[in-house]
Design a protein that fits this description.
Number of helices: 18
Number of strands: 21
CATH class of the largest domain: Alpha Beta
Shape: globular
Strand content: 15-25%
């Protein structure tokens, strides 16, 4: 259905998504994405960038893929114009830079001719970003003072003539070829015929600046065969020049312990993005599949009773961000706000829970360094035994925190503010493990371990024996082992950062004994 025109046209932003790593988006690009009513994105834009979109945005995948029938460039341009005339703010999100071997200039010209306001948001280009993440400088004072970027196909999408490649062979120090994998044999052969030594270092960078990145290094004479044996296809950049010889000393991205590892994050929907970001920062490939759903308590009566007398407690304790979120949601529904706490002091487990509390206008009086309930109990009792304590947490939780406080003489109301239950789609959770698409499973709670075990069933638990299972702490580990799940890694600091640190130490290659070095 065509969009109805309005008196005020919308605006179109032609935004470069960068080479792969979603962290390389520009500030301006992220602002445009957050403002857009509609985002038309291509196949090379990292899907994590769409997390910056506002609620209600319309997302359209208009990526063109070889061998796959997709919308034409003319259809994309027509849609941009139509949407803007209907008053929509539109982002055209393009992999790499919108003006480097892309169709951004054509789209901008069409928008100009149609009288549509537009803005071009440049980005880190794929050859520059991909080369940097591969540890290959495109120029170097002693090795290369010039670099040429060239596409492997002409505008009719067929290979350039061999004569064109021969002329390029010695005209520049470093050659970067984009979209050239289908013709890599002919391209490298023609460059050699043009006078470049077949022993010149060469590399192919596949999916540069992403955890899927693969880099093959050889010489101009053999890189085509090496890349073919490795199964490398587009999107790749072919780099020819002496600068490739620096890779072994300058590679930094694909040497990290978690690089390329496929990590299953079974956190609830809407809560795994922070974990996914932390994994990508360490070079891993996050796979977000909810294992549990978080809902309000089935019996709300106990919670509703304490909401009217929160200020009567000496201390109110929270052990998780979910506890904070659901408590304050119930408080709002009761027509109350942070003033309900009165003179009650508030204690939490961990800095992230403290930050969640701060978002509701309350600074925690006590933040337990130890990321366990017992740690919060000990820290609280170090200040004296409180008379009355409200503990707001999940329905199923470890009993150590209230038990320690009660044994010390405190009166504790342990109130359920949320419950966890297995996610509805158990098959989606089990499938990546059963299909061997996972290297690591992160368990950040006992409820996740239970849901995962239930989804896999007794026969499917064998799939966990083929992967590394990492637990955030002893309570989660205890639950997992009771279910028959082997835990390989347990965090010393019971937080997300501590868990990933422990996983990195576990995954790092063991140093060679002194006698084997050299």
């Amino acid at each position: 259905m065509a969009e109805a025109p309005t008196s005020r046209p919308g605006k179109v932003w032609l935004v470069g998504a960068g080479p792969g790593d979603p962290g390389l988006i520009t500030v301006r690009g992220r602002e445009a994405i957050a403002r857009a009513d509609v985002v038309l994105h291509d196949a090379l834009a990292h899907p994590a960038l769409l997390e910056h979109c506002k609620q209600g945005v319309v997302l359209r995948d208009v990526g063109k893929r070889p061998g796959v029938r997709t919308g034409s460039q003319a259809a994309i341009i027509a849609e941009l114009v139509e949407l803007a005339r209907a008053g929509k703010d539109v982002v055209r999100l393009k992999g790499g830079d919108p003006l480097l071997f892309a169709r951004g200039a054509e789209e901008a010209l069409a928008l100009h001719d149609a009288g549509i306001p537009f803005e071009i948001v440049p980005a880190v280009s794929s050859p520059i970003g991909g080369a940097a993440y591969a540890g290959i400088p495109l120029t170097h004072r002693e090795l290369s003072s010039s670099v040429t970027f060239i596409t492997g196909s002409d505008r009719e999408e067929v290979a350039w003539s061999p004569d064109a490649w021969r002329k390029l062979a010695t005209a520049t120090d470093t050659i970067c070829v984009l979209m050239g994998m289908r013709h890599i044999d002919a391209i490298t052969r023609a460059i050699v015929e043009g006078g470049r030594s077949p022993s010149t270092p060469a590399a192919v960078v596949h999916w540069g600046a992403r955890p899927e990145q693969r880099v093959e290094v050889g010489t101009l004479g053999d890189i085509a065969a090496i890349a073919r044996r490795a199964g490398l296809t587009n999107p790749s950049v072919i780099i020819v020049g002496e600068v490739v010889s620096l890779r072994e000393r300058l590679r930094w991205y694909d040497t990290r312990p978690l690089f390329g590892k496929r990590v299953l994050v079974p956190r609830p929907a809407g809560q795994g993005e922070e974990t996914a970001h932390a994994l990508r920062e360490r070079g891993a490939v996050p796979l977000l599949v909810p294992a549990i759903e978080i809902v309000g308590p089935a019996d709300r009566a106990p919670l509703e009773r304490v909401l009217s007398r929160v200020s009567s407690y000496d201390w109110v304790l929270f052990t998780s961000q979910n506890g904070v979120a659901h408590f304050f949601r119930a408080l709002r529904e009761a027509g109350r706000d942070a003033r309900a706490f009165g003179n009650a002091r508030v204690g939490v487990v961990g800095e992230r829970t403290a930050a969640a509390l701060s978002g509701h206008g309350i600074q925690a009086d006590l933040v337990a360094d130890e990321q366990l309930g017992e740690g919060l109990a000990r820290a609280l009792l170090a200040r004296g035994v409180p008379a009355r304590v409200l503990l707001a947490r999940a329905r199923v939780a470890h009993d150590a925190l209230p038990r320690v406080l009660r044994e010390a003489g405190a009166e504790v109301d342990d109130v359920t503010v949320y419950e966890t239950r297995p996610a509805a789609d158990a098959a989606a959770l089990a499938a990546p493990l059963l299909d061997d698409r996972v290297d690591v499973v992160l368990l950040t709670s006992g409820s996740m371990a239970r849901a995962l075990s239930s989804a896999l069933g007794a026969q499917g638990l064998g799939a966990l024996a083929r992967v590394t299972v990492a637990s955030i702490g002893p309570q989660t580990t205890e639950v997992a082992r009771e279910l028959g799940v082997r835990v390989d890694v347990q965090a010393e600091e019971h937080s997300l950062e501590g868990l990933l640190d422990a996983l990195e130490r576990f995954s790092a290659p063991s140093p060679l004994p002194a006698a084997q070095k050299g």
